[in-house]
Amino acid sequence: MAEQKTVLTPIPGVFYRKPAPDKDVYVKEGDAVKTGDVIALVEVMKNFYEIKAETEGVLAQFFVEDEDLLDAGQEIAVIIEQ
Amino acid sequence: MIKVINPGLQTTVQDHGRIGHYEVGMPPSGAMDKYSYLASNLLVGNKDHAAVLEITYMGPVLEFQQDVNVAITGGEMPPKINGQSVPMWETLAIKAGDVLSFDFIKQGARVYLAVAGGIDVPLIMESRSTYTLCGIGGFEGRALQAGDELKIGGENESEIAVGTRISDELIPTFSKTNEIRVVLGLCSYRLTEESKERFFSIDWTVTPEANRVGYRFKGERLNFVEREQPFGAGSNPSNVVDLGYPIGSIQVPDGVEPIALLNDAVTGGGYATICTIISTDLDKMAQIKTNEKVRFVAVDIHEALEIRKEYQGKINQMKQQVLGHKGGVKNG
């Protein structure tokens, strides 16, 4: 059975799905991801922290919108392990 | 020696601060949550002013190359030695080769790591605190980076038994909604009565621009009393003739987004400061994260002094527990 892994942000801040405003998103919903792939950025105190996949699978869904303000520990996406 | 494997998000060397140079524009820097800072030094037998690591939001991974006692206090960020959970607010023994790491932050924003002897970096203007904006103090004037090696100093004065802990009633807890007490002034007369009332009656949200320099809040626009621009003041209604900014003072440039100035902030300027956070609540402010809520509560100077007395009492109680072993919880 496929396991679901929730991706959390360890820090609070602004959520970005793109590496830069004029670039494509890191991953689209339904894309395959490998362990260590960057899936989003969180910006706080002028630092950009990379959120990485900690498992291999399909990124099924993002729970937050681009540029949302996140709490520390908030769920941001779910990966279905393959 | 302590080797930095991973620095965390922003980890800096801090002590009680670079005090006494405010008039030349030098802010004090130093540990933002002084109570937790003092507790960490106390638990490893350090002098009050020894330098520690201040860790913000995400913990570092540190490899110790010598045996040493450590203590971790502040917000709740569960620490681990070689992957095994260890308690905060307690004297811990580290062996050469041990790796200290942390889980996600659960409560608060900043954690203090004291090592017996203190972090040994050069004294700059009588302080080891890092002031990153000017690139002075601490470890090469900056936040730690992977590969840095920290020396341990000789700032300890007493032997504290491993397992000594601060009792629960003296350990602060932190929440996502906070009351921060302020004394009104120096330039509160510039706000309209209505805006003054609104300032104290709404929840302000901490924006991502919240660091050691200051915290910026989102809420609603505040308005200033109409006036004729005085000689020497800027043209914006939020401007006054330049004044010294108290630490913890709150200004509202152009009436949008109040800013609380903290340990690394500019020491003076031309914005009306509408109130000042009382010293004990600066500790609380330091433990508030981006996207959390703050309600400001006005107290007068007498109440503020009374609150400070209580706070000093708690610190004395903590000292007695750890140094006097009176009522201290020992489980080592």
Q: What does this protein structure show overall?
A:
The complex is a heterodimer of chains A (82) and B (332). With 82 residues, chain A is an all-beta fold. Chain A has one domain: RNA polymerase II/Efflux pump adaptor protein, barrel-sandwich hybrid domain (OB fold (Dihydrolipoamide Acetyltransferase, E2P), Beta Barrel), CATH 2.40.50. Chain A is 0% helix and 48% strand. Chain A has no helices and eight strands. The mean pLDDT of chain A is 94. Chain B is of the alpha+beta class and 332 residues long. Chain B has two domains: 2-172, no CATH class; 177-299, Cyclophilin (Beta Barrel). Chain B has four helices and 23 strands. Chain B has a seven-stranded antiparallel β-sheet, with no helix packed on it. A seven-stranded mixed β-barrel of chain B has the order 14-21-18-19-16-15-22. In chain B, strands 2-3-10-5-8 form a five-stranded antiparallel β-sheet. In chain B, α1 (34-43) packs parallel to α4 (301-324). The two termini of chain B are 25 Å apart.
Please give a quick description of this structure.
Chain A is mostly beta strands and 82 residues long.
Find the biggest chain interface: A-B, 17 and 19 residues
Count of discrete domains of chain A: 1
Number of domains of chain B: 2
**Biggest sheet record of chain B:** 7 strands, antiparallel
Q: Roughly what fraction of the amino acids of chain A lie in strands?
A: over 45%
Number of DSSP-assigned strands of chain A: 8
Q: CATH topology of chain A, anyone? A: OB fold (Dihydrolipoamide Acetyltransferase, E2P)
Mean pLDDT of chain A: 94
Give the % helix of chain B: 10-25%
Uncertain parts of chain A: none
Oligomer: heterodimer
Function (chain A): This protein is a component of the acetyl coenzyme A carboxylase complex; first, biotin carboxylase catalyzes the carboxylation of the carrier protein and then the transcarboxylase transfers the carboxyl group to form malonyl-CoA.
Protein name (chain A): Biotin carboxyl carrier protein of acetyl-CoA carboxylase
Domain Lipoyl-binding (chain A): 4-80
Pfam families (chain A): Biotin_lipoyl
